[in-house]
Design a protein that fits this description.
- With about 250 residues, the protein is an alpha+beta fold.
- Helices cover about 40% and strands about 20% of the residues.
- It has one domain: Aminoglycoside phosphotransferase (APH), C-terminal lobe (Aminoglycoside 3'-phosphotransferase, Chain: A, domain 2).
- A hairpin with a 2-residue loop joins strand 2 and strand 3.
């Protein structure tokens, strides 16, 4: 009998693994629908959809392993990281998906960032100096960009490789038109040592200051949410350490 393993679970969604099948349960049916549509359109390897019912999606496991996880050691050769960069570039070069971006406008993002930083300091979550420094860094991300087909949540744990080949990318519920550098920043968050390999595979010059800005911005915005949903942003190598690295 196969064992049921909880991959991730919080109040919004949960993912279970049973053998070679992943079952995702999401309170928002629109996210499931968006994920299936994005996987059908993305010009990169994605999991096979086995079946879909209201609030539940079953997909097949991908071969290979991830390149690591946030807060853990990175794995894979420089060539594997470069292959991931090439896959990301292929996605960004694809036609835009036929739905609007799900992200916030620059005005909304700036307002949310200011409000979150104020709460982090007022509630004693982080020192004021650390927040102020990273807010200064994050401002470089608040500029106009040309939308591309983005994954939207391209964490390192969402990209699978086998040797030096990308075998698939998972978790597409946030996909849509967005900032290419946000995807690159999300993928390299906490693994700055591999940024050069990823950019080499990506194959074009990028603004490294903007990628660093997205590291700070994303970390500032998610720390409180992570803590409230059972995750530990203070763990070694995770979001708080990313912020400290900007000092």
């Amino acid at each position: 009998m196969e064992e049921v393993k909880v991959v991730v679970a919080h109040s919004e969604r949960a993912t279970l693994r049973v053998g070679d099948v992943f079952v995702k349960v999401d309170a928002d049916q629109a996210r499931i629908d968006a994920e299936v549509e994005a996987m059908a359109l993305a010009p990169v390897p994605t999991p096979k959809v086995l079946w879909r019912k209201p609030f539940v999606l079953a997909i097949a496991a991908l071969p290979g392993t991830t390149l690591g996880r946030l807060g853990g050691p990175s794995t894979g050769s420089p060539e594997a990281w470069a292959a991931a960069g090439a896959a990301i570039r292929k996605l960004h070069d694809a036609p835009l998906p036929p739905w609007p971006g799900r992200g916030r406008s620059l005005t909304e993002l700036a307002a949310d960032l200011d409000g979150e930083c104020e709460r982090l300091v007022t509630n004693g979550v982080l020192p004021a100096g650390l927040v102020t420094r990273n807010l200064q860094v994050a401002e470089a991300a608040l500029r106009p960009w040309t939308p591309v087909f983005t994954h939207g949540d391209l964490q390192i744990a969402h990209v699978f490789v086998d040797g030096d080949e990308v075998t698939g990318i998972i978790d597409w519920s946030e996909a849509g038109p967005g900032d290419a550098l946000y995807d690159l920043a999300t993928f390299t968050l906490g693994h700055e040592e591999h940024l050069g390999d990823v950019i080499a595979g990506y194959g074009t010059d990028v603004d490294l200051d903007v990628i660093r800005a997205w590291w700070s911005l994303r970390s500032l915005l998610v720390i409180r949410w992570l803590a409230e949903h059972g995750f530990d942003p203070f763990a070694p190598g995770c979001e708080v350490d990313v912020l400290r690295s900007r000092l």
